[in-house]
Structure prediction request, 472 residues.
Amino acid sequence: MANTRIVTVGAPDDLGLRKVLIDGRSVGRVWSEEQLKELLGREGVAEGHPIRFLGEDGTYWPDHARSRRAIGGIVIFGLLVTACLLFRIGIADSGDALTYGGRIAGFTILVVAAVEVIAAVAAVDFWEMRLWPYSGVVVLVGVVITLLCSTSVVLLQIGERFTDYTLIAIGLLVWSSVVLVELAKCRAWKGLSIPRKIAIGVIVSTLLAVANLAYAQIYVPYVTTPLIQSGAEFRESNQEKAGASLYVTAHLYVKNAGQVPVYVLGSIYWIHGGPASGPPEVKTTDYKLIYDGEFVTPVGRVLNPGEEVAQDVVVEIKDPERRGYEAIRAQTEVYVIRKDRMTMANDFKHSNLEKWSFGVKCEEGDPPGAKSRYWTNISNSSEMLNVTRGRQRITAWRVDSGDWPRIDVHVSPPGERISFIPTTPLQNREAAERYGLSQVPGVTAQTPYRELLEKARSSEKGSSEKGASPPK
Prediction:
């Protein structure tokens, strides 16, 4: 009797596994009576050997293998779906995000995706043999990550365009909520024992590091605003002979004086003749357009910090003596959008459609009087924003509106028609906040008209005297 081995079978756990001990030593866990016989046979215990059952007798085996494996399979599937989506976003952002903070976020997402894969492996153990005491904790962490990610995407989708990712996020949100209830029933957190002081220290250190990184690499660059300077100035004027056309040279420029690179979506300048006084004393209708055009080419070009684009244009004023101008005004205006918040396709500069030269009528959504249109698709600064916001399209029109032609720019989802209503000047507020879309008026240059004529005449007189032959 002294050599008789003592076999003990413990009570069923949350999944129905019963622990088997021989002489106080754990030899495994079993789901059923058949598995118990196989385990004892491998340990050299003869059939019919007395067995001591704790909690329940030898007839109680609560495991339902099909339902258990079905639940485990559903959990593994959800974790792997989350991992695939996170890997896709992380790979894209770690290499292609426009900001340092975005690339750091991409690498972080890749780490989280790896945790999801580990959680899926742990789920296999948790719903099979539970050989690893922390498998339930790892599965719990993976499901909580899915819950947080799906909740974030759903919240960010509020007010956004409905996408395929919205459906996936809603599905994962429901899945993670149900699985968390199941894990709570199984008490998946059992076996986790981390000293409170160590846990608090790790949490505080992590929060401080994350806060410092977020402030230095994300917040500061985000709140840094572009500084774009534009303007015009008059230079020389000349007239070949009395009564001939007056030629005036205007210098136009735009400079990026800030620290943020921008795309120049469109530029326009106006040369007007009119009263010597300016707004608000004089209405804009009192100015007559002499010439207009664009001075930054090609459209969609990048203007890096410190870079300047300048152009001199020569304006012809016919019958200058008959003009009733008191002054000549030159003004510029450019539309820019931040390069660190979006990526614009290279086809923007080649997408021009001269509508009237082809005899094509304005399409629905085009502003009345549109002469030409540029458009292209843009993507957000990170793949995560592409997931929540979806792809966008930017469109720029050159509009003929009498003495004050203009440029209209709009950012919207592809295929969405834009309605131009004069009473809604803030229709691009969302694009301005998200992408830094801004309209930059330039410094106005104004010079007396008669002074230009006198300079031109003196220049003409001086050149004629210089070219005259000396007396004999």
Summary: The radius of gyration is 37 Å. The longest helix spans residues 65-96. DSSP finds nine helices and 18 strands in the chain. The CA atoms of residues 193 and 372 lie 68 Å apart.
